[in-house]
Amino acid sequence: CVCPFCQRELDEDSLLDHCITYHRSERRPVSCPLCRLLPNESPNTFDGSLIRHLQVSHTLFYDDFIDFDIIEEALFQRVLDRSLLEYVNHSNTT
Ligand SMILES: [Zn+2]
Ligand SMILES: [Zn+2]
Fold first, then answer.
1. Where is the Di19 zinc-binding domain (predicted)?
2. Environment class of residue 50 by beta-carbon count within 10 Å: exposed (0-12), middle (13-18) or buried (19+)?
3. d(CA 49, CA 30)
4. CB-side exposure of 26: number of CA atoms within 13 Å?
5. Which of 11, 24, 26, 36 has its CA 20 to 30 A from that of 46?
6. How far does the centroid of ligand 1 lie from the alpha carbon of residue 57, in Å?
7. Which ligand lies nearest the alpha carbon of 12?
8. Cβ(19)–Cβ(54) under 8 Å?
């Protein structure tokens, strides 16, 4: 995929790392390049920063980069998403 901020070629699993390193304070509204790869997901459906969206919606790629404050916020917004809940519970027990 390509970084939506600087158009740099990146692996899917390095996009969040790249964004945290280079675009942490970026607040431009961009469409998510990972969502674009998934035919069932529609881009431009998230609020706030791309970094937060990546952490909330694409955590399967990013086991090492989960910010639990952000996950808790996501749970509050998506209390019906049981798969995410189970994921957090599982992570807390390890
Ligand atoms: Zn970039
Ligand atoms: Zn996305």
1. 3-58
2. buried
3. 9
4. 20
5. 11
6. 19
7. 2
8. yes
